[in-house]
Structure formats: C-alpha cells, structure tokens
C-alpha cells in the first residue's frame, strides 16, 4: 500500500516554509526505492499493487559520444540488443515475452538519441520479471556482435533510414537544422552515415560497446506490482558484476547551443504543406525547476503562453482572418527557453496574419490581458486534475525516464498538487501581465516565414520589417469580454421508476424517457473524468458525394455560429471552463458526438451538450469564408508525388460512387450553405436512432438521473441513415508511378474478398491472424532479408460490411524491387502456412491483454463500448476477451488465412523514384 501524506498536513508544511528566504527544494516521491551498486549502476523501483510491470534500462550513450568513424554506432548497438544476447540468441527475446502478450513496438522497443539509449519492456505482471531482468543484464555486456549478424543488420538500419529521410523536408525540420547549424545536434543524427554504417564490423562495434556500456552509465527503472525486496536481491546479485570504468555514477549532460543562435527568416515547406508564420521568443537559458518557487514560475510561463495563444486565436476570429490553426510550443534548442507561436494560413492571408499577430503581441506587451481573459485562463487551470491516485505503471515509468534526463527522480505528487494549488491561490492578473512585458520585447523575437512550395520568397524582407515595425509601436487597448454564459435547465421529464439493468460486472443499461437506449460502464480508475458518446449508424457511407464534401465544411460553418443567443466562442469558452470538450465526428459507417468532462461538472456539461444539440445555428458568412479558404488552398497547393500516388491508388480501387473515393476541387466548388446545414441536420439534429454510451466513476443511479434529466427530453424525430455498402472495382489492377523525390520504392499488395458479416468471433479471428502474419512478415522482410525496417500487414473488414481487405506494404531499396518480386511467391507461401498452436496462443494473449487495458482507460473504453454495441459484437468481447479467444481455434485461423491469398480481386500499387533521383544514403 502507498503511504499518503494528508493534503492539509502538506499545506501546513508549505506554509511553515514560506517565510524562508530560500524556497524549499522539490521533494522526491518517497515511494521510489533507489540505490547505487558498488560499480556505479543505479536502480529505481516503484511498487504499485495490482499494476502492470514497466521496465526501462537507461544507458548514457548516444550519437554525441561517437567519434567521426563511429557515426551511428550507439543506434546500431541498440538494434543488436534485439538480435541476440547471451541468454536470448537469434531474436528469441521476442518469442520469450510474446507468450505473455508482449508485442514488438508498443511493449518491447528502444530509442537512441543524442545522449541516451533507453530500452523499454512492458509486462502484464511479474511472471516474466526474472527473464526481463536477465535480458537487461545481457544488454549490459552480453550483446552478440557476430560478423554475420552485424552485416545483416546494416540493411535493416538503411531501411530505417529510408523511412525517416525525405528529399523534401518539412519547414519545421528546416528551421531545426538552421537554428542548430554549427552545433553537433545537426551533424550527429543518431542513425549515422552511409560510410560509417557500411564499414561497420563486429570488431569496431565491440570496441564502442565495451567502452560506453559501462555500469556507471546505466540506470534501471522498474514500476508496478512486484516484490521489491526480492527484486533488490536479484539486482544486487546480477548487476553488481557488470564491468565499469568508475564507481561514480555518470550524470546525463548535453552541451548547450551557442548563445548567438538565430532563427531563419524564410523557409520553403515541402510540397502540399501549409504556409505559416512562426514567432520565436528567446527567453533565456534553461534551468530545471529545483524549488517550489521555481516550479510556480514555470507554471506561470505555461499560463502566459496559453494567454498569448488564446489572444491570437480570438483576434484572428474577430477580424475574420482565415487561418488553419494557431499553436504554441517550446522549441528544441538545448540549454535555452525558446517559446514558439505558429499560425498556419493560406497564401492569400499572409499579410493580414503577419499584421494581426504583430499588433496582438504589442497589445499584450503594453496593455496585457483583461479580467475576462484572466478568469477564463484561471478556470481552465483550476480544472486541471493531477489524478494522483490514478497514475499507472507506464505513467510513472515514463515520468521517471523524463526526470532522469535532468538527473533526478519525479517529485512527490502530493507536494506538486499542493504547490499548484498555492500557485493558483496566489496568482494575480498582474503576474501574467508583468511576465508578458518581459517576454514580448521585439529584441527577444525572431520571425520565421514558411512559404508553400512554388511560392516566391520576394516578400519576406518587407514582411519582416513590417512585423517588427508593428510590434515596436504602442499596443492597442483591446477589450475582450467573455460573456457569463447561463444555460437554462431543461423542461423536467418524468424520471424512470426502475433501477438500471445490470448486464454484467460494472455494466448497466436503461432507456431514457425519450426511449433512447443507454449503456453505462462504471470505471474504477480514479481519474475523476466521465465520457459520453451519442452514436448512430450512418456516417460517410450514408451520404452522397456532395454531402461528403459538405461534412468537411461543418466545423468552420458552425464554430462561428451561435447557440440560441449565445455566441459559439462564448459557449465554448464556457465549456472549456468546465474542463470539458464536445466533439462531433463522422466516420465510415457511424457518426457521433463525444463529450469528455470532469465528473464534478458532468451535470453542467450534459446540459451544455443538450443545449447545443437543440439550439445550434450556423454562420453563413463563415461558410463562404471557409469555402473561399478551402478552394484557394486546393488551387494554390500543388499535389505532392505522394498525393498523386494515393489518388491514383484510390481511383484504381474505388469507383466515384464509393464512399471511400477521393473528393476533388469540383466537389467543393458546387457546395452551398444549405448543403452544409442539411447534412448537419441529417446527422446531428437530435437523438433519432442514436444510442447513448457513458463511462464514468460515478454510481449508476447518478448517471441514470443525469442522462435522463439532460438527454431524456431531446427530440428523436431524425430518421435512420441508410448505409450504402462499400464498392470496389472487382477486377483489381496495378498502378506504377515513377515520381517519388526519394530514392526508395514503396509497394502495396492488396487482397480483397467477400466475407460473411462479422460477429465477435470473426472480429477476434481477424485480429489474431493479423498478429500472426505481422510477426511472420516482419521476420521475413526485416530479419531474414533486410528488405524493410518496418514492413506492414493488416487485414480488416469494415464494421457492418461484407468485404475484407488485406494489405501488405514494403518500403525498399529500389535496386532490390526485382528481387522482392521474385521472392514474393515463396514469401506468400510462408505467410499462409498453417498457424501453429504457439502462434495462436501468443496472438490470443496479446489481444486479451490489449482489450483488458482498454477497459482500464475510460477514454478508450467509451469508443470500444459504442463500437461493440453498435455492430452487435456484444460486450463479452470487451469484458471477457479470454472467453472469446478460447473459441478461436486453428481451423478458423487457417481457413481465414487461406481465403486471403485466394482472393480473386488483387491490387498492386508501386511508387518508384523519379528517373532523375539518385541515392542519397
């Protein structure tokens, strides 16, 4: 059990310290058991009863530790740790842990950066904990580095290179490269260089491995349900023998960027990327918050950046300046605080955006935010829930990895919570305004202008001068008032006089007063959050081509409208203040409205949702502005080679009347305001043919009362949507384009067959077969032949459909395309060989583990609950997946596998390098 310090006692301790001239340092969470072995190896244990077991091995070695002829070696060693070690030879580490549901990628993986390599292993319990520690111990000094294994892995690493490196980089990456020019961060990409990797051999890698994999550079993190005392004994026994160069643990340190770094003035985005302007504010050198006072100062900076983003969004809306989004972030410039504000826009509105942002910055600097803006920010921060009791194993493990980056363990959660409350209690509007005056000096700002590919850059210098001239002028006194929204209560409806029906453990059902079926799952996750989904069959498959285009205009047309006499901006500010979000969505065969909110404000949030559905009205002028923006963007942005390839592939597979076919410029040109209104009414006007799904930690009786009160009076007159089946060209076909700007070939092999409508067993069988074939495909394509770093297979049936699509993809060296095509019949034969009992068992355990994890996360659960119920899969698959898995035998899996490759409809899509592209490795 975790020992908890009462919040009142902690508050008294903080008050008692507040009179000290030096703020108290942050306190490490006392639940960590942390020790250093005589060889400098450190371990950190965090027992949590009843939780999964998360392990991380951190090694302080990365690309900055490499010599010039060792470029890429740290990353290379990371790869070899999975290929074979003393106790887990020949990739057997994957098989060892697959039996308990561990999957390569999400559960067992690693990453190498500039100064660290972090190995990850996620276990469902402590059954395989001894084996996990044995593998981590092997990584310390038992990685197999045979000459054959090293040579085979070179092809895999170049496959990763092909995946990550593009000839036309995004403007964000260009900014990163320019800012960090003349620093080791640009020249020391962890993946290395062609020369060093092709010349790597077992001897040179072994030399690097023995030098840097020293015990004093390693730290082990284990979080979850464990016997900590027994685990300590194992660690002391096994890891004390790791070789070391010093008994003093090494700190993780990365060099700071030079003080004189500058952000670029102009960059050119990759084809198809939206233009943007970026304002970077160089605040000063970065130091971690080490005291309670410094932590409150950090929170103040967060609030200040939120205040800037809020003002930019608000004023762009008020000025009716079309934009594609406003974002705030912290730039990666080692050793420095650099705040970043980005506005994506259209080419036609760039001048207006630059002028508006400059004037907003000047206004915030000289006048500051108003009381209404302050209250909105305060309410949003007040509703932040630290969810102290709900921290999962993975949350704590990742938090530890992040904190150990700055050489400390995580702060005590209760101290952090109480310090945050103190921050809010002491916060004044003038605190924010004073910080705005410090940050928004023109001398600290850099302006980056990202142009779309094909645009002229001639206006850049003039725009920069205009921006800084405007920022330097006295700021305008902008008054922004957010109205106090008062949403009336609904007309009372008769409450049901019967208790909820108990369907199974924690699952309940009832009918609302308007006869809308409601399903509720009671969570025990301690997050204090509730999720509601109103869902109906229909979606894109129920719409005409013109209506599908109208769906893409819904958001902007309605976002700038009103709810009764309440401006939608004010309405959504009210919803934000409830720590809630309301999001309508349209998918292939369903459409829904999702509400997420704090359980404390569920009543107010449901009332807001009810009022929105009943009274929302669109803005016609917003429709015309959005249509103009969309058409301008489609006209001005030339399709990239990837867009052309995707369009050609979709045209090959789907006729124009299929809901999966792509829309084009003409589809949007003919749209009217009435089209958008009509499609909204068709999908979201009331609760007709919808069902209600709720996941919350509140009791069933409370949820029954709240849903009945706020949703039970809504109209249900909307007729059901008629779903059209997906249509494909049954003859199949082939698309080959030689237009890629990269020296790499992308191949898709697609098999399409008709199947019976899915029940839960068919659903599970498809999932299990996916897992079996993906493991085989990865072993063949990556490990055996080195064709592709991340080969992909997936087979799926649309919910409610009778068509199964199976897709194999590969991203390969163009020089090996002919080889792959020749090998494909043999590869296909191996992929469809009979499934073994062990393969079936591993897939079943993985699927069960994945579904069980969903039921512990209310946000994931609500979507799964709605899906399973809508399509008749039943709740058994969610609540007792092991029972369904037991019914999936080898005969069912093998029959399904054979049917895939026997499909009469087959497609092949190939994107090759353009004829003038040469290798850039």
Can you describe this structure?
It is a single chain. The chain has 4 domains: 31-239, Cytochrome Bc1 Complex, Chain A, domain 1; 266-390 and 407-472, 2-Layer Sandwich (Cytochrome Bc1 Complex, Chain A, domain 1); 501-637 and 651-711, Metalloenzyme, LuxS/M16 peptidase-like (Cytochrome Bc1 Complex, Chain A, domain 1, 2-Layer Sandwich), CATH 3.30.830.10; 733-913, Metalloenzyme, LuxS/M16 peptidase-like (Cytochrome Bc1 Complex, Chain A, domain 1). Helices cover 43% and strands 18% of the residues. It contains 33 helices and 26 strands. A 7-stranded mixed sheet has the order 12-13-14-21-15-19-18, sandwiched between helices. Helix 21 packs parallel to helix 26 (700-711). The chain starts with 6 loop residues before the first helix and ends in an 8-residue tail after the last strand. Residues 1-21 have low confidence and may be disordered.
Helix and strand layout, with pairings?
Blueprint: H1 7-17, E1 33-36, E2 42-47, E3 53-59, H2 73-83, H3 92-98, E4 108-112, E5 117-123, H4 129-141, H5 147-164, H6 171-179, H7 184-187, H8 194-198, H9 202-212, E6 218-224, H10 228-239, E7 266-268, E8 276-285, H11 292-318, E9 325-330, E10 336-344, H12 350-366, H13 371-382, H14 393-404, H15 413-426, H16 429-439, E11 445-451, H17 460-472, E12 501-504, E13 507-511, E14 517-522, E15 529-537, H18 545-551, H19 554-559, E16 562-563, E17 566-567, H20 568-577, E18 581-586, E19 590-598, H21 602-615, E20 616-617, H22 620-636, H23 641-653, H24 665-669, H25 673-684, E21 691-696, H26 700-711, E22 733-740, E23 745-754, H27 760-784, E24 792-797, E25 803-812, H28 817-831, H29 837-854, H30 858-870, H31 876-879, H32 881-886, H33 890-901, E26 905-913
């Amino acid at each position: 059990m975790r020992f908890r310090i009462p919040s009142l006692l902690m508050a008294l301790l903080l008050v008692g310290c507040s009179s000290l001239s030096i703020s108290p340092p942050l306190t490490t969470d006392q639940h960590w058991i942390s020790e250093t072995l005589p060889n400098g190896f450190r371990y950190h244990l965090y027992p949590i009863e009843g939780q999964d077991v998360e392990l991380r091995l951190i090694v302080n070695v990365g690309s900055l530790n490499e010599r010039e002829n060792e470029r890429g070696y740290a990353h290379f060693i990371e790869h070899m740790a999975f290929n074979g070690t003393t106790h887990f030879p020949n990739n057997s580490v994957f098989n060892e842990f697959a039996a308990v549901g561990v999957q390569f990628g999400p559960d067992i993986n690693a990453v190498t950066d500039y100064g660290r390599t972090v190995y990850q292993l996620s276990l469902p319990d402590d059954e395989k904990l001894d084996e996990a520690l044995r593998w981590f111990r092997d990584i310390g000094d038992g990685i197999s580095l045979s000459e054959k294994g090293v040579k085979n892995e070179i092809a895999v690493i170049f496959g990763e290179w092909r995946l990550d490196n593009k000839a036309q980089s995004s403007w964000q990456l260009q900014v990163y490269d320019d800012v960090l020019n003349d620093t080791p961060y640009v020249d020391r990409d962890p993946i290395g260089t062609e020369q060093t990797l092709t010349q790597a051999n077992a001897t040179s890698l072994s030399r690097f491995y023995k030098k840097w994999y020293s015990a004093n550079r390693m730290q082990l993190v284990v979080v979850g349900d464990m016997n900590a005392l027994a685990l300590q004994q194992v660690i002391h026994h096994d890891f004390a023998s790791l070789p070391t160069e010093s008994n003093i643990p090494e700190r993780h340190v990365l060099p700071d960027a030079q003080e004189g770094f500058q952000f670029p003035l102009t960059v050119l985005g990759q084809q198809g990327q939206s233009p943007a302007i970026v304002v970077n504010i160089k605040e000063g050198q970065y130091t971690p918050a080490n005291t309670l006072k410094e932590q409150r100062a950090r929170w103040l900076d967060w609030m200040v950046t939120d205040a800037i983003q809020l003002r930019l969004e608000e004023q762009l809306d008020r000025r009716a300046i079309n934009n594609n989004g406003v974002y705030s972030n912290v730039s990666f410039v080692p050793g420095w605080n650099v705040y970043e504000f980005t506005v994506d826009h259209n080419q036609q509105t760039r001048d207006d955006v630059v002028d508006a942002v400059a004037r907003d910055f000047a206004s915030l600097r000289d006048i500051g935010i108003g009381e209404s803006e302050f209250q909105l920010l305060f309410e949003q921060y007040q509703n932040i829930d630290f969810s102290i009791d709900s921290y999962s194993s993975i949350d704590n493990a990742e938090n530890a990895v992040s904190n150990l980056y700055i050489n400390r363990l995580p702060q005590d959660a209760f101290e952090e919570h109480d310090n945050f409350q103190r921050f809010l209690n002491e916060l004044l509007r003038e605190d924010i305004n004073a910080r705005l005056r410090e940050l928004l000096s023109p001398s600290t700002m850099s302006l980056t202008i990202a142009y779309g590919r094909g645009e002229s850059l001639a206006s850049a210098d003039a725009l920069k001068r205009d921006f800084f001239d405007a920022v330097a002028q006295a700021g305008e006194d902008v008054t922004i008032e957010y109205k106090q929204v008062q949403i009336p209560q609904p007309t009372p409806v008769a409450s049901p006089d019967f208790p909820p029906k108990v369907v199974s453990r924690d699952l309940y059902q009832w009918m609302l007063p308007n006869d809308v079926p409601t399903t509720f799952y009671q969570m025990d996750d301690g997050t204090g959050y509730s999720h509601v989904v109103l869902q109906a069959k229909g979606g894109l498959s129920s719409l005409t081509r013109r209506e599908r285009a109208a769906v893409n205009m819904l958001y902007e047309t309605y976002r700038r409208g009103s709810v009764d006499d309440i401006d939608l901006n004010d309405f959504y500010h009210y919803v934000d203040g409830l720590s809630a979000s309301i999001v309508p969505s349209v998918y292939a065969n369903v459409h829904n409205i999702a509400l997420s909110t704090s359980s404390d404000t569920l009543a107010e949030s449901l009332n807001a949702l009810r009022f929105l559905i009943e009274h929302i009205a669109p803005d016609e002028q917003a429709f015309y502005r959005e249509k103009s923006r969309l058409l301008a963007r489609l006209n001005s942005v030339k399709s990239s080679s990837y867009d052309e390839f995707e369009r050609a592939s979709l045209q090959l597979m789907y006729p124009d009347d299929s809901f999966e076919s792509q829309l084009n410029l003409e589809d949007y040109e003919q749209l009217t305001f009435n089209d958008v209104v009509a499609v909204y009414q068709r999908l979201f006007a009331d609760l007709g043919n919808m069902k209600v799904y709720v996941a919350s930690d509140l009791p069933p009786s409370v949820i029954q009362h709240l849903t009945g009160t706020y949703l039970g009076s809504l109209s249900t007159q909307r007729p059901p949507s008629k779903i059209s089946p997906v249509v494909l060209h049954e003859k199949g076909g082939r698309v080959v384009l030689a237009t890629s700007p990269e020296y790499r070939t992308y191949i898709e092999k697609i098999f399409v067959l008709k199947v019976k409508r899915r029940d839960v067993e068919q659903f599970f069988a498809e999932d299990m077969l996916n897992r079996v074939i993906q493991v085989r495909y990865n072993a063949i394509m990556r490990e055996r032949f080195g064709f592709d770093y991340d080969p992909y297979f997936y087979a799926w049936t649309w919910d409610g459909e009778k068509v199964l699509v199976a897709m194999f993809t590969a991203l390969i060296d163009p020089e090996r395309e002919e080889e792959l095509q020749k090998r494909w019949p043999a590869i296909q034969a191996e992929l469809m060989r009979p499934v073994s009992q062990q393969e079936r068992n591993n897939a079943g355990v993985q699927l069960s583990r994945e579904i069980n994890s969903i039921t512990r996360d209310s946000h994931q659960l609500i979507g799964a609950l709605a899906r399973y119920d809508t399509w008749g899969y039943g709740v058994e698959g969610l609540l007792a997946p092991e029972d369904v898995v037991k019914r999936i035998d080898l005969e069912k899996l093998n029959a399904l596998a054979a049917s895939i490759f026997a499909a009469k409809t087959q497609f092949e899509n190939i994107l090759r390098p353009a004829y003038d592209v040469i290798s850039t490795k």
